[in-house]
Amino acid sequence: MLYVILMALFGWGVVLLKRPKIYGKKENLRTKGGVIFIANHRNLMDPVMLGVTIPRCIHFMAKKELFESKFGNWFFRSLLVFPVNRKTADLKSLRQALKLLEEGKAFGIFPEGRRAVADEMDDLEKGTAFIASRTEAPIVPIYISPTTYSGWRRLRYIVGEKIYAKDVLETCERRELVEALTERMQSDMEALKKRMDEIYPGKKAEKNRKK
């Protein structure tokens, strides 16, 4: 499988060059069965970085434009990536995600919907909550440090507590679940960002403290 081969090859490079440092609930990365990994999105390499450091084969969504050529369609599907039309409510991609989770596989998604241009978290879209609300799969939130892609700095990310839709449902009505679950994910991701800023504020903040 191309996914396994490339992840193995990239894995050595990531370990040697980026020296991954993972904080938080690292045991959640080894979750068995259907699971949804969510993360902030700053760089095209985010899926690769997660793929080589999480001990699961992760299926990601990506914009359908990447699949328009024959090579792109073959390449990305070989890497367990499937297309999504970000301009509409793409029911086909949602069904694909639900099917993967029902089969006990790992699904990765960046719920901001696009790459952020600043260090702050964007508002999360509701698609992830919709998928989670229809499965029993836990959501594992991951915050990737924005400094990861600055020169030779280490890959750093922090893993949060699992989020279960059934737990959120205890605090709201069924019709409010998607909204409440999205708010919970947003809150947890913001908390992880705050913790990361405290653990590793980056060289700029360190210089400011010394002044």
Quick synopsis:
The chain is of the alpha/beta class and 211 residues long.
Provide a descriptive summary of the structure in words.
By secondary structure, this protein is α/β, with parallel strands linked by helices. The chain has a single domain, classed as Glycerol-3-phosphate (1)-acyltransferase (3-Layer(aba) Sandwich). It has eight helices and seven strands.
Mean pLDDT, to the nearest integer, reads 88
Bin the strand percentage. Answer: 15-25%
Distance between the termini: 52 Å
Estimate nothing, just give the exact number of structural domains: 1
Structural class: alpha/beta
How many DSSP E strands?
A: 7
In the CATH scheme, the class would be Alpha Beta
Question: Which tags fit this structure?
Answer:
single chain; 211 residues; alpha/beta; Glycerol-3-phosphate (1)-acyltransferase; 7-stranded mixed beta sheet; 8 helices; 7 strands; globular; disordered C terminus
Helices and strands in order:
Blueprint: H1 2-18, E1 21-24, E2 35-39, H2 46-53, E3 58-63, H3 70-78, E4 81-84, H4 91-102, E5 106-109, H5 127-133, E6 139-144, E7 156-159, H6 165-169, H7 177-199, H8 203-210
Parallel strand pairs: 1-7, 2-5, 2-6, 3-4, 3-5
Antiparallel strand pairs: 6-7
Helix pairs in contact: 1-2, 5-7
